[in-house]
Please model this.
Amino acid sequence: MNNFEFSNPVKIVFGKGTISRLPFLIPSGSKILFVYGGGSIKKNGVYEQVTKTLQGWDVTEFAGIEANPGYETCMRAVHIIREKGIDFLLAVGGGSVIDAVKFIAAATCFDGDPWDIFTKGASIESAMPLGAVLTLAATGSEMNERFVISRESTNEKLSSASPKVFPEFAVMDPEVTYTVPVHQVANGVVDSFIHVIEQYLTYPVNAKVQDAFAESLLKVIYEEGLKVLDDPYNYDIRANLMWAASNALNSWIGQGVPQDWTSHRLGYALTVQYGLDHAQTLAILLPGVMQYMRKEKEQKIVRLGEVVFGIHEGSTGEKVQQTIEATEGFFRRMGLKTHLSEYGIKDWDIDALVEPVRQRGWKLGEHANIDWQVARDIFKLRV
Amino acid sequence: MNNFEFSNPVKIVFGKGTISRLPFLIPSGSKILFVYGGGSIKKNGVYEQVTKTLQGWDVTEFAGIEANPGYETCMRAVHIIREKGIDFLLAVGGGSVIDAVKFIAAATCFDGDPWDIFTKGASIESAMPLGAVLTLAATGSEMNERFVISRESTNEKLSSASPKVFPEFAVMDPEVTYTVPVHQVANGVVDSFIHVIEQYLTYPVNAKVQDAFAESLLKVIYEEGLKVLDDPYNYDIRANLMWAASNALNSWIGQGVPQDWTSHRLGYALTVQYGLDHAQTLAILLPGVMQYMRKEKEQKIVRLGEVVFGIHEGSTGEKVQQTIEATEGFFRRMGLKTHLSEYGIKDWDIDALVEPVRQRGWKLGEHANIDWQVARDIFKLRV
Model:
C-alpha cells in the first residue's frame, strides 16, 4: 500500500424526504443562490420541494447550467453573486450543476483570471460555502472536491480540484431519481462504474481494503445497474446506486493505490468536438484502454472478471479477453454505444481527437506511458 | 436502506514515516499537551520520533493513561491544561489514549460535572482541538467521535460520543505496530473484527454497499489477522490491518443499517469486575449473542459463514452452527479465551455481571429485546 493523506468532510444527508432538512443545513440568515440546470427539477417536483422548504429565506435563482457546464455561464453567476451579496451557494442537480457551483464558489473569491485555475494550475486559496441537493446518481461530485468546466470560446474541457470546494452537505434522496430519463440513468451507471475502474484497474499494491471496497462497488453498480431500467421506481435499487456512485468517487477507494484516468482524459475531446455525453465517451474508450494495456493490467483484469462477471474458466489471456468483452457488453446492455463509428466518427478524425494530449504533452496511465501516439492507437482500436 | 446523516472530517495521514508530518498538522504556535500511556512508546521509538519532530514547540508531557482510561487520570490532565494554558492535545497511543484525550478535550470545556456526559447524557457543546498518532490497530478511535471512560470510585465503564471530539488528524504509520506485544495485536484483530460484526450481524435492509464493505473488512481482518502473529514485520499485513481497523469503526459501514452493540455493552462489566481486556470480553460474549439470537440473525450469519469462513454446505441451521463455531474458533486461533470459566468466572457470578443492565434498564440488540434477564441467559451460554 502506498502512503496517503486525505479527508472528506462532506456531511451526507441520505434518504426519503431529506430535502426538508435544508433549513437545518444552511447557515441561518444566508443569502442563497439556488443554482440549477435546464429545468428538469421543475418536472420532477424537486424545484417545488426546495422552494417550499426555503420559504422565507433570501433566495435568488440561477438557472441554465449546461450538461457540460460552461465557463461563460458560471462567470455570469459570479457577477450576480457579487452584485447581490450572496453568501451561500445551493446546487440542485446532477454532477454538472454541482461542478459548476464548485467553480463558481472558487471563481468568486479568486484574485485574477479564474480560467488560470485550469490552465495554469493556479491555487484556490478560498471559496464560498456551498451545499448540494443531488438529483442524479452518477458523477460523485456531491462528495468530492473535483470539478470539470468547458469553455466554448477555446474549445476546451478541463478539470481541477481543491479541498476548499467540498460541499458542506449533500442531500441525497433516491426518490428524486425515479423520473430521470432512461439514457441519463444508464449514463450514470456507466460513469460511476468507470470511476471505480479508473482507481482499481492498474497493478496490485496489496491494498486489500481499497481493492475489496472497489470490487464491492463494481458488483453493486453492475448488478443494480442491470435492474434499474426495468424497475425504475424501486427505492432500494435507486438508493444502492446513489450511495454506490458517491462512494465511487469520494476518494476513499483511491487512497494508497495507483490510478489511471486515461479514459476520462481522452474522452473530453469526444465531448468537446462531437458533443458526446461524458459516459458515452468512457464507454467507447475504456475497452480500448483495457485492450491496449492488457499486459500491464492483467492481474486486475482477471480479478475484475472473476469478482464482477463470474469469469473463472480459461487461460489468463482468455480470461482477460472475456473480461474486456464482458465490460463492453455491460455498457451495451445499458444501451450505450461503444464504437466511434456508431457516432459517425472515422479513422481520419482521430488525429484531431488526440491533439489536446499532444499539445499539453500529457503522459497518461498508471505508468505515465500513454502519450498522444499511444492515445491515437487506443482510439484506433475503438473505430 | 434506512435514512442516515453523517460526516467524518478526520484527516488521515497514512504510511511510512508519517510522524514527521506532525509540524504541518498541528496549528503553528500551539501549546501542546502530549498525552500517552504506560511508556511503551519509549520502547518502540515513537516517543523519540514525536519529540524530535516537535523540537522547538511548546510541549508538556502527560503520561500514565491506563488501558481502561480512568476518569480521575483524565481530570488531572484537565487541571494541567487549565493551569498551563494548553491549546492543543496530541494523543500518542492506541484507543485508550485517544479515548482519554477525547474526554479530556470535552471535559476541559465542559460547564459542570463532566461525568454527567456519561450518566446524564449531557451534551458536549465544545471541545479542545486534538490530533492522534496511532500506535495500535484496534479500536478505530483515531477516526471516530466515540470514547469510553472508566471510573474506579463508582466501578463504572461508560461511553459517549460527540462530533466535537473528532481528531483533527490521525497519523497512522503501520511500522510503529511491529513491536506491539502479541496479545495486544491479537486483541486488536478480534476487537476490530467484532466492531464490524456489531454493525453487520443484524437483519438485512438491502444496503448493498454497506454490507459488501462490512464483508470486505471482515475478510481482510480475518485473513491478515491469521497471518500477523507469524509475520509481525510484514508491512503490508500491518498496513492492511491498520486501515481495516479504522474503517471498522469510522461510521461508514454502519450508516443506514441496524446495529447491535450487545457484546460491547455486556462486556464492560467483565472489564470492570474482573479486569479482562476489552477484546477478551468480546471474544467471550459474541458467540453467546450469535447463539441466543441465531433466528433473528440467521440470514446474516449464513452470509458471514459463506463470505468469510467459506461455509457453503448443509442446512441453514447447520450453516448457522458452523459459522458460530468458526467465529469462536477464529478468536481461539488468535489466542483468546472464549469462556468465562477459563478466567475462573462461575455461573453464580453472572447476576453481578448483568447488574448494570438491570440497573440502567438497558434494552439491547437491534430489536431492543435484550434486557437483563436475556443478558443473563447469554452469559450462562458462555460459562
Summary: Chain B touches chain A at residues 1-18, 21, 169, 206-210, 212-213, 215-217, 219-220, 223-224, 236, 239-240, 243-244, 247, 252, 255-256 (CB under 8 Å).
